[in-house]
Fold each of these.
Amino acid sequence: METKDNSWVLITGASSGFGEEFARQYAGQGHPLVLVARRLDRLQALAEALRQQHRIDVVVEQVDLSSVEEVIQLHQRLHERGIAIDILINNAGHGLQGSFVDCQLDAALAMVQLDVASLTAVTHIFAQDMRKRGRGKILLVASLLAYLGMPNFAVYAAAKAYVLRLGEALHRELKQDGITVTTLCPGMSDTGFATAAHQKLTPALKQLMMQPAPVVRAGIRALQAGRINVVPGWVNKANVFFVWATPRWLHQAIFSQIMNG
């Protein structure tokens, strides 16, 4: 019989990619789950599979996370059901490759709304509950691009830099309230992000590709250990060190070539 952990985990962007993998790994630990995304059919299929395999409670919530009002309503529904979120995996996000000027303004602002504004709202709302209880864990999913200003990913990289700096600040700010905040910064991963972002997969990127499972496992371990952030994969760690150790003109030029060909 599997060990049950009654602490609820809320996962945003749970219908695919990292979100789906977070759901599978936390289900394997016996946690009850709240799965949140826009694609209801995929959420329901995942929820049913996890219920049958792990005998856990899974709540499905179809929410457009780009709407702060819908985020507030989600919180209210969970409160009415008596579900207190102990672990928040703030994973939902959206990227788009292309020239900043050529990109439609609506598309750029949609990235800012989901990756910055809505992530901030979700974190704020559920952190308030955690502070009242004196405990909780929050994982913010950023990106390796948070360390770089990346041509043709200008808005996405800037948004993820916000997530990284927010997480670093909240790690210290909320620690006194019994809340752990950790930021996960994955590199190139096989999650379907590249297809959704219309990203060109250069030969170098294909070689750097990681599978979702070890990335998610690294994030969960870092959160459990109370770390401020984590970059999964030795090559990605080396890349961050290279960014830190070299002038901007050099690492910006090299990584631009890797990302854009």
Note: The longest strand covers residues 85-90.
Amino acid sequence: MSVVSFILPHIRALKAVAPVQVLANTSDSTLLKRLGVDSVIQSIPVVRPIAPWMDLKALCILYFCFTRGRPLAVHTITPKAGFLGMAAAWMARVPVRVHSFTGQVWVTRHGLVRWLLKSVDKLTAAMATDVLVDSPSQLAFLVGQGVVSASRGTVLGAGSICGVNTQRFRPDKIARQAVRKKLGTPTGAFVCLYLGRLNYDKGVLDLARAFAKVASSNANAELWVVGPDEANLFGKMQVLLQNVKSQVKRVDFTPEPERFMQAADLFCMPSYREGFGSSVIEAAACGVPALVSDIYGLTDAVVDGKTGWMHEAGNVQELARRMEDILANPSGLESKGQAAQSYAAKFFAEELITNLMVEFYNRLLNEKTA
């Protein structure tokens, strides 16, 4: 998922700089070729939860891959793969070791668990020669927390891990009509869209509580919940939305997120933690403004009052009030949608971020080869 969703454009571009090999937890050896990229992909058993024996096995496999293949650079993303990959690359003395921070799991944890997960991030950063962070506000947070030094952290452009494909994510009136028709949503309905993984840290229960308050007096409003249910939370959302269940539509994982964004009026992301709001700028590129929590990461993706709105994270009353205000004054949506589209194209276009990534690697590799 990370390869397909985040780094495919970078892989394509970096192939012009040097041969590229991808290591990921997949049994699909033809994945990259089917996506039009002529690079090798190798399966590595890196799993998301803590699994000591599986983690040790993955570490050993990575170490042997790096000692045998002698890569000039190793780049990791996601927390577990980052720690194991940087550890193996450090032990194998790979010259260039880059890790991308895209959000911190420990932000919403407490006590020993927070300390342990934060320590793992510190070790990952310490073993890397260079650190990329996908938003300026996240970098400031990591520096403040002592995880990354200011001199070693880099943000590409204005942020994001890969930018947004503005050819794919763009306004489309035909798609808007088609998706609404398929879901049985009236043309004039006001659609609030949540699109992403369903878990506690994404604030989906807060969204359900807020929408339940708003929808009871706004029969024209609908909430679309789109994405994989990792923590079996939709059942809990349904309980909270019981009184307005006819105004809620549920769609599982979709390979075409842009179609739902093109059909929505407002994008909602009430997260407790985000490295950067990739889905927020994708919605923005579709001309859809966002209502998001005021946390680091999301503050880089939305200009409050111009390309969208912000609310205090975890404050259901404020979230509901913001939704009420937007529903009561829908005339401002069009101008904010246009501003959001311009903002995404100017600062987060995929080609811009990818070019910066290539420049970043050209500099690093030239320094090492020199």
Note: The chain has two domains: 2-163+350-369, 173-347.
Amino acid sequence: MTIRLLLVDDHAVVRSGLKMLLGGHEEMEIVGEAGSAEEALAETERVQPNVILMDIGLPDKTGIEATREIKEKFPDVNIVALTIHEDEEYFFQMLDAGASGYVPKRAAPEELITAIRAASEGEVYLYPSLAKLLVRDFFNPDRTAEEAANLDGLTPREHEVLTHLAEGASNNEIAESLVISPKTVERHRENIMRKLNLHSRSELVRYAIRKGIIKA
């Protein structure tokens, strides 16, 4: 399957470099580029990419806001943050907004390729040094007892839905995989978040990694 890529970065030289880097991979096709959040939203609608590489520092809105807006309008599009920012504030905000991956611009090209491929398959990819932020967070002693007691409250079907959600699958993808309706998936999602006392995507991913449901 061809991975249709949209490049979002306000620096034309960065986009040019990415096109040179990624254009040599047969399974990847650069279908568009954008230099702002508004352009990114318009281009997403126009070219219908599978994966978006999203910078955080955009001139009109942040990449976090752009990610949230795109995921709300196009939930099946997977977004990988490609940014200079490596602090936990931006990291967790991008996960909350719906990003399926987070890669610093200093990363080796192979790391970016891996993240793109993972995102295209509906998986979550976290750069190793940033995944440590999750490790530190979920070993917080204030969370351990509560989380340890919560998992048994899920039904077998909720376990399945949780796994798919943590891996970055959309409601439609989960529905197709489990042969249930998207509305049923949404009800399961609401029950999972309520039972586990989770309030965002990043909390769900941290929880799933802690429990060994997915791996960082």
Note: DSSP finds eleven helices and six strands in the chain.
